[in-house]
Amino acid sequence: MNKSCDTEILSVGTELLLGHVTNTDARDLSELLSKIGVNVRYHTVVGDNPQRLAECVRIARQRADVIITTGGLGPTCDDLTKQILAESFGLKLVENAEERRGLYDSIHPERGFTGNNFSQALLPEGCTVFHNDWGTAPGCAFEKDGKIVVMMPGPPNECLPMFRRYAIPYLKKLSEEQIVSHSVRIFGIGESGVDDMFADEMNAMTNPTMAPYAKECDCLLQITAKAGSEAEAESMMAPVIARVKERLGEYVYGMDIECIEEAVLPLLKERGMTFAAAESCTGGDIARRITEIPGASAVFAGGCVTYTNEIKAKLLGIDPAMIEENGAVSFLVAKEMAERVRILTGADIGVGVTGLAGPDGDGVHEVGTVFVSMAVEGETFVRELHLGTKRTRSFIRRMAGNHVYDMMRRYLTGLKV
Predict the structure, then answer these.
(1) pLDDT in tens, 318-376
(2) Residue among 155, 125, 151, 132 at smallest CA distance from 140
(3) What is the SS3 string spanning 119-137?
């Protein structure tokens, strides 16, 4: 397989069309495939209807070289993906004895095992089986008539880890060439700014290639190379990555990581430092984000959500008169929040956030006004942010958190905070 072949992700499930379930599978698989250089050209969603599903498969065969399906592999009568794909490619469904045994072992009679569960062990003849260690329905892959078909279960907590473990290596083995990709993570400059900076270079490149991608509150620059070996691809990318890092400078917060807090945690560990958070408009999101990363207990001392003025005074000891005079959304209150949570917890760094995530303002500041702060021994830094009056609450909260982590990153690496 030439990994530049066109790929279609076909997501099966009426619940997706009704909006009862968000189709995160297509998003997540597209991101994983982009990292190995597989071009996803189409996303299709179809309900649990055999005629419509068969028509979608017919269309996909005409325009895609690789068809990846998610959903419809379970034991119920509306799980039709295997049957329709097998019929479309002229394959029989045959029972896989190992998967049948595994189904009986994993679904004990006392948990309501019924005979239809065995239908999950019926798989297209000659396929490569992907055992499901996260659920019951196995996935599979086969090649027929010049097409590659990969079938994955729908639940994201099954689909994503199975795709990483089985489908990615399967697709890689189909080519003699190796495609390697790295993402340079960026905060402080947007996707359009990155594109403007590198547009001429990107347009002239063929191998390696570069492409900017916007995330919710930051962006990345994906650098990809194709070569006969992984080492050769890495060698081709090395000068490009070095050039990108040099030009972007302080905006680069990491390589091949998912979020800015993943960059901050090891920096704190290296220095044996801890931080604590006093949060208002972020509602505990700063604490949640760091504690989702394994090893956070070594760097996160704790925190508090001081949503009202009364709690800011009672828990943090901020003078109520000062809050009344300046307003909760202010430079001075943010400064006090960071300083006091640092002292109360004994952390090396204290951070604070207070602002207006909307939809209502406070009569003084516009929605999207946020003050973020960071206190260390002998010094406190405060940023005043204006994140936009039309932004969503989730955007304002996440962007405020990104600024908090960016302040710590800059402090810990010797950059201007």
Answers:
(1) 999 999 999 999 999 999 999 999 999 999 999 999 999 999 888 899 999 999 999 99
(2) 151
(3) HHHEEECCCEEECCCCCCC
**Rounded Cα gap, residues 86 and 156, in angstroms:** 23
Question: What is the reported pTM?
Answer: 0.83
Q: Which amino acid is at 372?
A: V
Given a contact cutoff of 8 angstroms between Cβ atoms, the answer to whether 236 and 208 are in contact is: yes
Q: Identify which of 263, 308, 307 has the alpha carbon closest to the alpha carbon of residue 285.
A: 307
User: Both tokens of residue 399?
Assistant: 């962007």
CA distances to 20, 111, 139, 160, 166 from 131, rounded to whole Å, are 27, 21, 7, 13, 9
Instruction: Strands of 36-162 (E only): list them.
Output: 39-46, 66-70, 93-95, 122-124, 128-130, 139-144, 147-152
Instruction: Kindly state the DSSP code that residue 115 receives in the 8-state scheme.
Output: G
pLDDT digits (tens, 9 = 90+) for 222-270: 999 988 888 999 999 999 999 999 999 999 999 999 999 999 999 999 9
**Burial letters 77-102, b for 16+ CB under 10 A, else e:** eebbbbbbbbbbbebebeebeebeeb
Say what angle helices 331-345 and 309-316 make with each other, to 10 degrees: 40
Cis check for the bond before 109: say yes or no (omega within 30 of 0): no
